[in-house]
Amino acid sequence: MYHATTDELRIAVLGAGHGGRAMAADLAARGYHVSLYNRTLEHIEVIKARGGIELQLEQGEQVFGALKVVSDQIEAVLEGARLVMVVVPACGHVDIARACAPFLQDGQIIVLNPGRTGGALEFRQILFEEGCATDVTIAETETLLFASRAMGPAEARIFRRKNSVPLAALPATCTPVVLDILREIYPQFVAAPNVLYTSLNNMGAVFHPVLALLNAGWIERTQGDFQFYVDGVTPLTARVLEVVDRERVTVAAALGVRAQTAMEWLATAYSATGSDLNEAMHDNPGYQGISAPRSLRHRYIFEDVPFSLVPIAELGRRFGVSVAAIDSMIQLACIMHGTDYLHRGRTLERMGLTGLRVNEITNLVMYGQAQRVG
Fold first, then answer.
1. Is 214 helix (H, G, I), strand (E, B) or coil?
2. Which of 95, 110, 270, 373 has the fewest CB atoms below 10 angstroms from its CB?
3. 10-197: CATH topology
4. What is the pLDDT of residues 122-146, one digit of tens each?
5. Residue 208 catalytic?
6. ∠ CA(341), CA(346), CA(351), 5° rounding?
7. Among the options 18, 33, 93, 208, which is catalytic?
8. Residue 95 is among the residues annotated as catalytic for this protein
9. Which member of 18, 26, 245, 304 is catalytic?
10. In this predicted model, what pLDDT tens digit does every residue of 13-43 receive, in sequence order?
11. Looking at the domain that runs over 204-339, which CATH code has it been given?
């Protein structure tokens, strides 16, 4: 059962999609002072009228999260908040950063849930470009804590929670401060060495866009009427996944990061093993029953290509790592969507990394300064 806390911690949740709605309700139902923002008022009108969100928990328990503020005015939601949980697709991070910039207050902690690849770096850069001199701490998670869905205009459901989710602040010296605030709220968050680790262990960068693009014909023909990670994974599609994954891990190594391989991640997260990625993915019961996207206008492409694959490719080219397979996936997505994701995506410039060497990037993510060493 949920128990109210006596803590007066104020939390702002930015984004009222699947994850944001579930997080806001989850925190509010446990007694936290929670405010919810969404840029489109129509999307949250019923929540505002009811004063909160009905939430179904993993065990089937129904709770109600009573929200203090529900608004499309971000200043009203940020006012007095110590913790700001950003729960929007990565394509919305820039807009959120720009909207927040004039209203942030000293001491606030901003957590991107998740950052995808380079999220905290881009958010920091946007605040700088907007002239925001407020003393805030930005952090990002490796993935979203919940598997959740919005079930109605003011209803949400949490299907499961991950056992642990790595988190890092920018700079990493602030990670203990962030985790100290979060420890009571979500003990599942654990420290990652820095945001390069959370960004380059982004497994969705591999699984989501590759399988969507390589199964494009089937998705269009059936409107996603097949099991994405079961039927969509074959020996040949898995071979492409392996090459894309190897390039990701190699880019990480060039930056001094020991990233998990997809095989290692499947074994850790789901105890799924096999002689190759094809076998390991089919050994995962957690993938059973997950349907493919209904169309190719899906976040697996319009979010994961520009905000996961593009920054990895940019870092690879900067430090001499071959990213031919990743580039082929990006180009395929550009052709299918008629969009230049290479220029619209999270580039080195947008992450504030243009011209930096490895040791300078390391100093930036660890200490907040890109000092040149040697």
1. helix
2. 373
3. Rossmann fold (3.40.50)
4. 999 999 999 999 999 999 999 999 8
5. yes
6. 160
7. 208
8. no
9. 304
10. 999 999 999 999 999 999 999 999 999 999 9
11. 1.10.1040.10
